[in-house]
Design a protein that fits this description.
The complex is a heterotrimer of chains A (about 325), B (about 280) and C (about 325). Chain A contains 14 helices and no strands. Chain A has about 325 residues and is mostly helical. In chain A, helix 6 packs across helix 8, helix 8 crosses helix 10 and helix 11 packs antiparallel against helix 14. The radius of gyration of chain B is 22 Å and the shape is elongated. Classes of the chains: A mainly alpha (about 325), B mainly alpha (about 280), C alpha/beta (about 325). Chains in contact: A-B, A-C, B-C.
Chain lengths: ~325, ~280, ~325
């Protein structure tokens, strides 16, 4: 009848929806930059900008043209890869982002892996042990603590502990992975751990809720009534049916992390995306801020769209509803 | 979600949920300290400079002193007040705006609904801290920036929850009956819809509060939020950052208090949510 | 014992916010090999709990306070869990009220049937099983997902899965409640027909008296967590002894004569929080005497059935006559 792949029409709708959201993101970023007092070209170049460069910008973005037209020009420039020029370095912003991308990606991957490694088993265990009062209360407390510990507090604690004692992991001293893997890992493990604290707690809670929810479904009762062993039921039915909420949380977290974990990068001296945007804000380098916002939000939208498509593959009921219900 | 559950109606919050009850008491305690503490100069005078510099926690200075010899206790008390006030104000604004927008969008439907949903999606796509950075870049560092950032970050979820709850309730028979009976829209909204979505909104508001405190702490930590002479828990952390390795209490004191506050709010939120939707369990045996 | 299923004096309570709720208050029931027994009662009478208890499938918030269940002579509540699972695999089969819900929504039908068959040691392809339950175009159904089927088709699939293991007892809990009225008969014909072919007994939980009359040789009537009357279907329906059974039959659509009335039973079924002090039906019974309110009735053999009523012998001797039958002109 229908294959696992969702209807082409549904896919097209999802894609179209993502494109519209991306457009909305670009409009918001554009509008935000034009709310800032001061001329746009000054923003991009700073008051010391060379007149020729300033004139070039004025021409490129049509600064005396009506706003919607400016927007279109700006959008066109952005889509063709021109993200502006950094006021500080006078280099194209895009290049610096590309240079820093691997760092943030590495941190994101490590943090996500840690969150899943800790969170999935813990969440599942919490779900299966949930009938016991004490276990449930303790699990709840631990989970809530993980969600409540700000990364700047946890990170600070780790900084204090690991910078005063030589214990292996380092604070700072980042080195690209392919240059020196060991040093790189020693410098990235602490920030990754810090980020993963929140992520792990989120995964624990979501996994627990999703598994519990799946366990109360009638088809689980039917499987138990057929005499299936718990392990079989879990592997055959529960895993797939509780995957979607967990995937949602993972996708959201990854999407956010790829926008750079600003605080952690700053604390541990990691030259990533977030650190770049932070220093740009502190130095009023608006071209960087603007580009950073655009990139981060766009990545988030794309990742979520991919996640949506994967949901439809897992649970075929999803693609059946033509209208999106949120 | 139905209207207020028996738990809240009886006026005994969390009678069956000791953890949430403890959390609620903690929040009340912190709020009380924050409100009357600075007035009563609880813990001492925050401007008194005379003490030993960077003294570790002890009997006389329970949380230690900073580089100027000020006891950290009154500063933390001020910090609690600032953090709680800014986060609460922001969440209150978000709750009001979000509920209005979300409910109206769901009720009016079609184009307005689409636009609102898109708007929420767009806002939601910006990672929290990044949004805070953008806001402070636009508005300039300060407490306004922190409050605005919290509003923009927590608004999308508030809109979504308001909209989803309204959609769930609006098609129920009693609402349709009221509409057919000629009740005016404001009346339907106030009398029928609002009480029934109140539960979901309260849960969402408590989570927004914990997010708000996290964001305020984060952005102040980065130096872009609350500025001296005001101090929030986050800005205290920012000031103590430089001396972290020699005087960790400068960071741990405010930091753990902040974590405790956020934890309590989260537990209360969980408790309220569980009161509405108790979880059934099933055995695999 | 040659009983296939024997439940004796079962007491089951559920934990709720308002304290324990007693669903079964000494329920006794039996099914012989190959026998079709109907269990009827209003919602809340404890029917579903009986069904779950038979398979030891009670949720964690339910507690067995007393009584036992013997399946083919084995006391299932004394057995280790793995043995219970084996019994479920080899002896029991369950059909539930929501057929689509009882299937995994993320797995194709064919695969679910194949897995069930494989667990039961049956090597036939899923299409064979699907054809056996009268599903046309078995290939297409096998490739479908549960939400793409109608309620009737899904229940046929559930029956197919249930019968892969050649069960000795099928427990069907309101199997046609969520199915179109026009298809109900077909599904029930299928269920009972296949059960007969396989030699399996059926415990049929329902409130549909007509179906019970059509398919079941014996019927048990439940009220307030107890079986108040238990006997051969035809005779019981013609001459009910227990006051509740009488009232139930009088309130059933289709039995009244021309110009007659369908008389609903006044009052509400009880919600028990502990053992009922007397007879649970006393509050609604037209013939209740003070003894009924204070003393629990014990099972008596009246004629060809078991009855739980202090005044059962009076009913039979005709002394107790309903006001309705005397008023009918």
């Amino acid at each position: 009848m229908t294959g696992r792949l969702p209807h082409v029409r549904w896919l097209a709708l999802r894609l179209g929806s993502a494109v519209i959201t991306l457009l909305g993101v670009s409009i918001l970023v554009f509008a935000a930059m034009h709310v800032v007092p001061g001329r746009y070209d000054e923003l991009l170049l700073g008051p010391q900008g060379l007149p020729e460069r300033r004139a070039a910008i004025a021409a490129q973005f049509g600064l005396d043209r009506p706003l919607p037209e400016q927007y279109v020009r700006w959008l066109g420039a952005t889509l063709s890869g021109d993200l502006g020029v950094s006021m500080g370095t006078k280099e194209p912003v895009r290049d610096e982002f590309i240079r820093r991308a691997p760092v943030t990606i590495q941190l994101t991957l490590m943090a996500t892996a840690l969150s899943l490694l800790i969170g999935l088993p813990a969440g599942a265990a919490a779900a299966f042990g949930s009938t016991r009062r004490l276990g449930a209360g303790l699990g709840r407390l631990l989970g809530a603590t993980g969600l409540s510990m700000p990364d700047f507090v946890l990170g600070s604690v780790l900084v204090v502990v690991f910078s005063t004692n030589v214990l292996g992991p380092t604070v700072g001293g980042f080195v690209p992975f392919f240059q020196d893997p060991i040093a790189n890992l020693r410098a990235t493990i602490l920030p990754a751990l810090t980020i993963s604290g929140f992520g792990a707690a989120l995964v624990i809670r979501t996994t627990r809720d999703a598994v519990l929810s799946a366990l109360t479904e009638p088809y689980v009762l039917a499987a138990v009534a057929r005499g299936q062993r718990p392990r079989t039921i879990i592997l055959r039915h529960v895993v797939r049916n509780s995957a979607i909420p967990v995937l949602t949380v993972v996708a959201t977290t990854v999407g956010y992390l790829l926008g750079g974990s600003v605080i952690v990068e700053q604390l541990f001296g990691i030259p990533g995306f977030g650190n770049y945007v932070l220093s740009a804000v502190q130095h009023r380098d608006y071209a960087v801020v603007q580009a950073g916002a655009l990139i981060a939000a766009s990545i988030f939208v794309v990742i979520n769209m991919l996640a949506d498509v994967s949901y439809a593959w897992i649970d075929p009921r999803i693609a059946v509803t033509q209208t999106e219900t949120r | 979600m139905t209207a207020l559950p028996n738990v809240l109606r009886r006026g005994l919050p969390f009678a069956a949920d000791p953890l949430s009850r403890l959390a609620m008491l903690t929040i009340i305690a912190l709020a009380t300290v924050g409100v009357i503490g600075p007035i009563l100069h609880l813990g001492g005078d925050p401007t008194a400079i005379g003490g030993p510099r960077l003294a570790p926690p002890g009997l006389e200075y329970p949380i230690g002193t900073d580089t100027l010899g000020r006891s950290l206790v009154p500063r933390v008390v001020e910090g609690i007040r600032a953090t709680l006030i800014f986060a609460s104000v922001a969440v209150l604004i978000t709750a009001v705006i979000g509920t209005c927008i979300g409910t109206l969008a769901a009720y009016l439907g079609s184009v307005i609904d689409e636009i609102v949903v898109r708007f929420a999606d767009v806002l939601f796509s910006f990672p929290g801290m990044l949004m805070a950075l953008i806001v402070s870049a636009m508005v300039g560092p300060g407490s306004t920036s922190a409050v605005l950032a919290i509003i923009l970050i927590t608004l999308p979820l508030m809109i979504r929850v308001a909209r989803a709850s309204t959609l769930r309730v609006a098609n129920r028979d009693f609402v349709v009956t009221a509409r057919v009976g000629g009740a005016s829209m404001p009346r339907i909204l106030l009398v029928h819809l609002l009480p029934n979505i109140a539960g979901a909104m309260v849960v969402q508001a408590t989570y927004a509060l914990s997010v708000g405190m996290l964001i305020e702490g984060g952005i102040s930590f980065l130096g872009l939020g609350v500025q001296p002479p005001e101090s929030s828990l986050g800005s205290l952390l920012s000031q103590g950052k430089a001396y972290m390795t020699v005087a960790p209490w400068l960071v741990l004191g405010p930091g753990l208090i902040l974590a405790l506050a956020i934890l309590s709010v989260n537990l209360v939120g969980d408790g309220v949510r569980d009161a509405f939707q108790p979880k059934q369990s099933q055995s695999l045996t | 014992m040659n009983d296939l299923l024997s439940m004796a004096n079962m007491v089951v309570e559920y934990d709720t916010d308002r304290g324990p709720q007693r669903a079964l208050d000494e329920a006794t029931l039996s099914v012989s090999r190959g026998e079709f027994v109907g269990l009827v009662g209003e919602s809340g009478s404890g029917k579903s709990t009986v069904g779950l208890t038979v398979g030891r499938l009670l949720p964690p918030n339910a507690h067995r306070r007393a009584g036992e269940v013997l399946l083919d002579g084995q006391a299932i509540f004394e057995l280790p869990v793995e043995s219970v699972r084996r019994l479920r695999r080899e002896m029991l089969a369950f059909i539930f009220q929501n057929p689509i819900g009882s299937l995994d929504p993320t797995m194709r039908i064919g695969r679910q049937v194949a897995l069930a068959a494989r667990d039961a040691g049956d090597a036939q392809p899923p299409t064979t099983h699907l054809e056996r339950v009268g599903l046309p175009d078995a290939e297409r159904v096998a490739a479908s997902f549960p939400h793409e089927l109608s309620g009737g088709m899904a229940q046929r699939v559930a029956i197919a899965i249930a019968l892969t293991g050649r069960p000795r007892l099928i427990v069907a809990d309101e199997p046609t409640a969520s199915i179109d009225a026009t298809i109900r008969r077909q599904v029930l014909d299928l269920l009972f027909g296949l059960a007969r072919d396989v030699g399996s007994g059926v415990l049929f939980l329902t409130h549909d008296l007509h179906s019970v009359a059509r398919y079941c040789s014996r019927v048990a009537v439940m009220y307030g967590g107890r079986v108040v009357e238990d006997g051969p279907t035809a005779h019981l329906f013609q001459n009910p002894v227990h006051p509740y059974t009488r009232a139930l039959l009088a309130s059933a659509v289709g039995r009244e004569g021309v110009g007659g009335h369908v008389v609903p039973i006044a009052g509400m079924p009880p919600v028990l929080h502990g053992p009922a002090a007397g007879c649970a039906y006393a509050a609604r019974c037209s013939w209740a005497i003070s003894r009924c309110r204070s003393e629990r009735p014990i099972r008596e053999i009246i004629d060809d059935r078991l009855v739980l009523c202090h005044r059962a012998d009076e009913t039979l001797s005709g002394k107790l006559v309903t006001q309705e039958t005397s008023a009918d002109a």
